[in-house]
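FAQ

Q: What does a record look like?
A: Structure on top, sequence underneath. For example:
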């Protein structure tokens, strides 16, 4: 009997009846985290709907996956949906416009996309394209990012925010951008930057736009709580901010101070933290106006969260607010301070990156194999000649019932460890050790089935399902494609993209192909808690089993590493048309073996020479024939040109 049936019990299965689309929606929470972009079709396949409020237009991820393979690209594949980026940019800007219209806000909203969230050229090109009608700009934090931005930006009304530490080359590039008509702002991170900016501006005969990044006392929960607060790494404290004002006044340059910026952190789950920080920042902004600075721009940084688990809570992987609520609360908070101080409403800037691009990308991959937990038949009697501990373990298995379930669990652990100790000292055979393991795991499986009948489940027994979970070996690398899952325990929605009208009959965890114990996923989203297993299906020998990891558009692509020399995956960009058809806009082949070897300083030309020399010596010594030599060298070439992931 499979582990899913064992986990929930036969009586429960009988109550469930026929598996339906609705049950899959509830099981995987897709309607909660999908943000109206992802849903399950009547055919039991995951659909992507680019027009949030029109479920009649969509494309099947399974159909797309099969089409990609028909075009000659193997799994894994990173799918990018242009429409979703367009839709999120529109949604954020329109939500701010609606909030400002309803509240009679006299300023306007101009967002900027922080390039660090995903620096891929195709994405930056699309952000500037779809953001142009809203004058949605870019934020950069390095020379490389500034050059990337300047190569893509065409809208002279959009803001170009220069954060980070700036050397002369960085500053000169930004000043030239300002000369060419771009709305470029230099945000002072450390006091020493001001002098060099003013010096270079004078030399290049351009009046700079200055901003200051302040440290506010407000802090937020989540992974990046240290980004805010008095002891945050970046920004100026209040004394340093006043020194900047005084220096600019002394140099008759106070008129260049036009922007105030702060950053509370990324993925802020609680709207109260956001509102509190906005009010504090708005107060500082008002005081800078009173100091005589013209100001005009209030940059509230990032923080707009993505509801990865769909729980709509202030949990780290979620958020307890909508985009509309976020926009309304920000506008209200800024208005309240400005009107109290009788100061004109500023242009509000946010550096929302995660919320814009998370939905844009999905990682698709196939399952290669399953290591299943097998339930073994245990004989009624072991007979004579076995150790006392083995006989006792067998007795625990036979006498287990609902009343003594906790006691039997403790006894099973005790006798298992005792038997291992006997084996390590040479007192029992390997065959007896193997029999003891069958009995132990059979006992654990019986406990899992029985414990779900309890009204109150003991703490020690709560997570036993994960102990008997099947292992699904998947064709991808955690370290390359979703490094945050490994590094900071970020949870992403994961689910099969087809067979969703079939009951998932297994509880599994996912293992990648990196041969590393950390290369696995054993924590999964749940609207009430974190699950330690994922409900999955058995493999069908006649078709691939595809899984998708969703909401991976933010940070994952550029944070990925070359663990085990698995490189970038294939990337396919898709545009879905209003009639439901779709176009493959671009295909980028993933790294070859030769590519990744060159990244770690191997000279592949020299490798070929060395390999050829080794093969020639093997022929001379009679180890291989000349024909085998040719086959071996061909194999080398095929290997170097091959995809770093598992190929059929």
């Amino acid at each position: 009997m499979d582990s899913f049936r064992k986990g929930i019990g036969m009586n429960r299965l009988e109550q469930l009846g026929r598996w339906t689309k609705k049950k899959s929606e509830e099981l995987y929470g897709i309607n909660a985290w999908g943000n109206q972009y992802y849903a399950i079709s009547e055919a039991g396949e995951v659909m992507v709907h680019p027009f949030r409020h029109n479920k009649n237009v969509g494309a099947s991820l399974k159909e797309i996956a099969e089409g990609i393979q028909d075009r000659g690209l193997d799994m894994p594949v990173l799918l990018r949906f242009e429409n979703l980026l367009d839709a999120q940019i529109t949604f954020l800007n329109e939500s701010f416009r609606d909030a400002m219209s309803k509240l009679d806000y006299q300023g306007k909203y101009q967002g900027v996309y922080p390039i660090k969230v995903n620096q891929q050229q195709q994405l930056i090109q699309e952000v500037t394209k779809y953001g142009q009608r809203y004058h949605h700009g870019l934020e950069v934090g390095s020379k490389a990012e500034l050059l990337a931005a300047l190569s893509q930006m065409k809208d002279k009304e959009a803001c170009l925010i220069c954060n980070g530490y700036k050397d002369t080359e960085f500053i000169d590039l930004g000043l030239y951008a300002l000369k060419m008509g771009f709305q470029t702002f230099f945000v002072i991170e450390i006091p020493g930057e001001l002098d060099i900016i003013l010096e270079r501006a004078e030399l290049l005969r351009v009046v700079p736009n200055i901003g200051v990044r302040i440290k506010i006392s407000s802090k937020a929960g989540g992974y990046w709580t240290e980004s805010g607060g008095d002891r945050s790494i970046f920004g100026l404290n209040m004394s340093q901010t006043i020194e900047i004002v005084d220096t600019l006044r002394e140099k008759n340059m106070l008129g260049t101070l036009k922007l105030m910026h702060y950053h509370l952190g990324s993925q802020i789950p609680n709207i109260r933290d956001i509102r509190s920080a906005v009010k504090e920042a708005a107060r500082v902004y008002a005081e800078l106006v009173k100091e005589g600075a013209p100001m005009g721009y209030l940059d509230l940084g990032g923080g707009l969260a993505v509801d990865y688990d769909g729980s709509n809570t202030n949990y780290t992987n979620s958020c307890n607010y909508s985009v509309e609520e976020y926009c309304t609360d920000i506008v209200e908070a800024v208005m309240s301070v400005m009107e109290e101080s009788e100061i004109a409403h500023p242009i509000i800037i946010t550096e929302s990156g995660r919320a814009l691009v998370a939905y844009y990308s999905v990682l698709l991959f196939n399952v290669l194999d399953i290591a299943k937990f097998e339930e073994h038949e245990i004989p009624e009697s072991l007979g004579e000649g076995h150790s006392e501990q083995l006989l006792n373990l067998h007795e625990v298995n036979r006498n287990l019932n609902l009343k003594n379930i906790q006691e039997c669990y403790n006894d099973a652990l005790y006798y298992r460890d005792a038997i291992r100790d006997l084996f390590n000292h040479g007192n029992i055979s390997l065959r007896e050790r193997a029999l003891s393991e069958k009995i132990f795991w059979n006992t654990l499986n019986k406990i899992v089935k029985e414990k779900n009948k309890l009204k109150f489940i003991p703490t020690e027994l709560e997570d036993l399902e994960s102990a008997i979970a099947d292992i699904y070996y998947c064709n991808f690398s955690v370290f390359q494609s979703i490094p945050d899952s490994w590094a900071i325990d970020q949870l992403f929605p994961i689910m099969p993209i087809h067979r969703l009208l079939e009951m998932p009959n297994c509880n599994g965890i996912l293992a990648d192909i990196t041969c590393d114990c950390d290369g696995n996923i054993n924590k999964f989203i749940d609207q009430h808690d974190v699950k330690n297993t994922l409900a999955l299906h058995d493999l069908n020998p006649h078709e691939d089993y595809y899984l998708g990891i969703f909401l991976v558009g933010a940070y994952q692509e550029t944070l990925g590493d070359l663990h085990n020399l698995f490189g970038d995956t294939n990337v396919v960009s898709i545009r879905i048309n209003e009639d439901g058809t779709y176009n493959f806009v671009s295909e980028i082949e993933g790294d070859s073996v030769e590519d990744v070897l060159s990244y770690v300083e191997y000279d592949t030309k020299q490798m070929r020479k060395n390999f050829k020399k080794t093969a020639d010596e093997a022929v001379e010594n009679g180890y291989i024939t000349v024909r085998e030599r040719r086959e071996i060298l061909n194999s080398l070439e095929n290997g170097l040109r091959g995809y770093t992931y598992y190929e059929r």
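Q: Is there anything notable about this one?
A: The two ends are 31 Å apart (CA to CA).
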